[in-house]
Design goal:
With 348 residues, this protein is α/β, with parallel strands linked by helices. It contains 10 helices and 19 strands. The chain folds into 2 domains: 279 residues, Metallo-beta-lactamase, Chain A; 40 residues, no CATH class. Strand 3, helix 2 and strand 4 form a beta-alpha-beta unit.
């Protein structure tokens, strides 16, 4: 069992505190309980600054997706211990960058771990030390292929990518979908627009209610077409306030808004907890609502802007920019209000 019975008193205190916090913050009643009830799943998007670390719990089993930066080890370990967790069924290291594996070595020494999903590019530096420690502790590892599945409590995990071997470690991120009843969550690490397109072309089932925004909300990920395929009702962005990369980028926020998605951000709200009862999600915080309603069948944008040239085009124009340099508009008026001029070639 994941939950240590010796810590039940502490867990009960945390649950009571969480419910009091929810009432004070205006969150929906019962949406921020520390541990999910029977039949529920909880995803904790832990605030680790400009890094990623997500804890998923279902029916007494726990999984960690990524492990923050190296200085986050005490924070992550204390957070898990405060929930009574002493065992992790799975850890997923999406890719070998410090902001995703930094506290990995400390975590695998602090908790019993049944299996680690990771690819093979852990050769030197911090990732090499992590690989050596995993081998020393004799923890089972697996490099998942697209289409592979695993089970966590009542949750089905399906691995979606990477489809190919890419030159960029970000694009080689492990991508996965977690399904709980009628609800689903999508995680893509730092994968960019190319692997996103490859997953679409491969026919992967990308539709999800909740999307953990790719690459901390970067515009080079979270591409327009990928978001149209996944069509999330909720988006969670893990990033640090006033970070040097400018995450989340305005283009990404605009794409989420176009979907009608409600956006949650760790830089503004701290740790985000999403609880699924198999039919709907509730949260410990209220996200930023879009200025348009969410729809099951999103309307396609009619004009494509170039964020560099500030020109907008017809979708059929031969002068379209690369995906990461695109913005999308439903009307000419919206494009021009955003400071874009019509392309002189396609004359939209």
């Amino acid at each position: 069992m994941v939950i240590n019975k010796k810590k039940l008193i502490a867990v009960c205190f945390i649950m009571v505190f969480s419910m009091i916090f929810a009432a004070c913050s205006g969150a929906e009643e019962g949406s921020s309980t520390a541990l999910p009830a029977d039949g529920e799943m909880a995803a904790h998007f832990i605030d680790v600054g400009q890094a990623d670390c997500t804890l998923v719990i279902s029916e007494g089993e726990a999984m960690l997706i990524d492990a923050g930066n190296q200085p986050d080890d005490d924070l992550i370990i204390s957070y898990l211990e405060s929930l009574g967790i002493d065992e992790l069924k799975y850890i997923v290291f999406t890719h070998p960058h410090e902001d995703h594996i930094g506290s990995g070595e400390a975590i695998i020494n602090a908790f019993d771990v049944d299996k680690i999903f990771m690819l093979d590019e852990y050769d030197d530096g911090i990732e090499g030390y992590l690989r050596e420690e995993i081998e020393y502790l004799d923890i089972e590892t697996e490099a998942p292929y697209p289409g592979d599945t695993a089970q966590l409590g009542e949750c089905r995990i399906e691995f979606l990518g990477p489809i190919y071997d890419y030159d960029d470690a970000n694009d080689d991120s492990i991508c996965l979908k977690i399904t709980h009843g009628e609800n689903s969550m999508l995680f893509t690490g730092d994968a960019g627009s190319r692997p996103e397109r490859d997953m679409i072309d491969e026919g992967m089932d990308l539709e999800a209610d909740l999307f953990h925004a790719g690459h901390h909300g970067s515009s080079t990920s979270n591409s327009y077409y990928f978001l149209r395929e996944s069509n999330p009702r909720y988006a969670v962005i893990s990033c640090e306030k006033d970070n040097m990369y400018g995450h989340p980028h305005e283009e990404t926020l605009s794409r989420f808004n176009d979907l009608g998605a409600e956006v949650f951000r760790t830089d503004a709200q701290g740790t985000i907890i999403a609880v699924s009862d198999g039919k709907a999600f509730t949260f410990n915080e209220e996200g930023k609502k879009a200025d348009r309603p969410y729809t099951e069948d999103p309307e396609e944008a009619k004009y494509i802007g170039n964020v560099n040239s500030k020109k907008y085009h017809e979708p059929s124009c031969s002068g379209l920019p690369q995906e990461e340099n695109r913005s999308y508009f439903m009307t000419k008026d919206a494009a021009e209000k955003a400071g874009y001029d019509p392309c002189g070639n396609c004359r939209p």
